[in-house]
Amino acid sequence: MSQETNNTAAEAEIRALIDSWIKAASAADVEATMAHYAPDVIAYDAILALQFKGWDVYRKHWQMCMSMCSAMSFKVHDLHIAVDGNVAFSHCLNRCGGADKDGNEHTSWMRSTTGYRKIDGQWKIVHEHFSAPFDMETSKALFDLCLLYTSDAADDTP
After folding, report:
1. What does pTM read for this prediction?
2. Distance between CA 156 and CA 93 in Å, rounded?
């Protein structure tokens, strides 16, 4: 089997993992969500801590997040996946958030980069990074941004 065929198959497996992760997280199923992570995961989430090291620590964070929302939402946009052997990464924009106890939805676009490693024949998330851009003048995160598309043309302006 060629490397290109292997990479195409691996990319399909990672897309399936992402879809499964979205379903689990959206259902606020901590165990199903955590099944996607390697034991030594390192995560840089957009809230609370600078980093989360290890499955147990990140599981507690997910429990806290899921307890704050009556429903969670994740919508991936502009997903790109690169694979090389047993290592891969993806980056995308992710409309994420959730509904509070009163049913009010609070979502925003986040940037997401995820690293994967094939462990015992299964792709697992070994690194996850969610972030929001911020305004340097106010030091405030920018949660109300809209998608901005650019092209490779030199004269393209936002």
Report:
1. 0.82
2. 21
Distance between CA atoms of 109 and 118, rounded to whole angstroms?
A: 28
Residues 5-51 pLDDT 10s = 678 899 999 999 999 999 999 888 999 999 999 999 999 987 777 78
Site of tokens 């393209």: 156
DSSP lists the bridge partners of residue 16 as none
Spatial separation of the C-alpha atoms in residues 12 and 57, rounded to whole Å: 29
Distances (CA, A) of 109 to 25, 27, 65, 131, 144: 16, 20, 17, 9, 7
Question: Tokens at residue 24, please?
Answer: 């689990």
Model confidence at 151: pLDDT above 60: no
